[in-house]
Amino acid sequence: MKHNEHVSQINTGDAHSAEVERALDLNTKSLNEECGIFGVWGRDDAAQITYYGLHALQHRGQEGAGIVSNDAGHLWQERGLGLLSDVFRDTAHIEALQGTAAIGHVRYATAGSHGVENIQPLMANFHDMQIALAHNGNLTNALSLRRELEQQGAIFQSSSDSEILLHLIRRSKADSFTDKIKEALGKIRGGFAYLLLTPTAMYAVLDPHAFRPFVIGQMPDGNYIVTSETAALSVVGAKFVRDVQPGELITIDDEGITIDTYTTKTTLNIDAMEYIYFARPDSNIYGVNVHQARKRMGLALAKEQPVPDADVVVGVPNSSLSAAIGYAEGAGIPNEMGLVKNQYIARTFIEPTQDKRERAVRMKLSVVDDVVRGKNIVLIDDSIVRGTTSMYIVRMLKEAGAKSVHVRIASPVFKFPSFYGIDMQTTKELLGANHSIESMTRMIEADSLAFLSVNALIKAIDLPYHGEGSGLTTAYFDGQYPSPIYDYAQSLQTFVDKGEVTFAPEPTTTYHPRQVASLHNQEFLPDGTIHANPQCAKTNIS
Q: What domains can you pick out in the chain, each with its CATH number?
């Protein structure tokens, strides 16, 4: 869910190209957010369950949180800025959310869109119904759609692109609410996992590429849960049922679960950054455990980019620790806790100046001097974006007495931004897009620097996929975008002209779950879709 704070100030008389240029500048200069969503239907303690589920997703969003509950057909909303525990510090806020269904959302920070109006779930109150919406992802044609809707008289209450879907649903002339959702979904592009809550049902939707992870679980008493990661299922005691498939529209109500599709033109392009960085290590995405995938990345990195005479491997907490285990195993040298993370320090990327960022890194990370003193260190990190944090960490290790620091990155070089919901910078600000490895090594003050190759990354994730392509999105590394990026296209035109960036067309064929080996043990319907529960699931494939 990427925020477009400036959009409400756009003069609709301006040239569309100028509008897009301003949008690109503001939306990609600072880190954007990855979000987490959770929903449950049919529980007396729905809001409490949602709170616990969101707590397991706190790593996906730390600036704001919200929950909307359904109490006998009336929706109630509580939301605020800060961590989940801050927003719901007063137990009265949870206690006010009575009802047997709820959806919740946690979001990351972005520059210029810190108002509570952007905290989700968003809620719309119409004369005949209420709708709440939670969104993880980013719409690549949001600027064009919003401009069109505003010209038609739409009034937006937030600066989030997520609100667009609510307007499109409401303007649809289709007869049923389900058909209104389908018509609206046919107009949006990009990465999206949506949860919608109405007085009578909860709806889950995934984009045609499945950029974002989205899973269904079931409580012991049969109640269904839909959430961003399997780790959230474990926290609330739910069992994993199935991954939501690309192009699916799933309805959960008092009668059970209905598996539907709003499009049959689908592919599988899971964002590789989920495995590299964003997802919790105890989560599984399409049958692949994140910790094991990261460990394999480390193993592959040790083979591709060894460090002769290295004494010890040190991982940057926390997302790089799995890769550090793999690297140490592959290199046959000890893996030590040379860096300790203070879990109670705010994220460093929101600090506005370099000196404040450096101070924040030092507050966030501490060096275990006795581990690194006099040693040749292999420092494992998951990625380099700007490179400033890497430089500070290298300095800290050397100040603590490290003999040398060799940085090894368990992912390929970031060269291009993401437009599907992962936080990335403009190509102009990506270190790897503008500097050679030798230059980057000098800039971060390391003794050497090396990255994992794209092919090794794909092999390490080891998605058991048997369709066209790898089933992953690796565009940030190789420039091969799995779909058009619409409003953002001009920002990469120079690279398109050079042949460094390509855009695949929107899918024209149908992806089937049978193309992923880890899904083979799930119940299939004759058309290849997955049956969530043979006892109570219904299907309405269109």
A: 36-266 (3.60.20.10), 286-340+351-474 (3.40.50.2020)
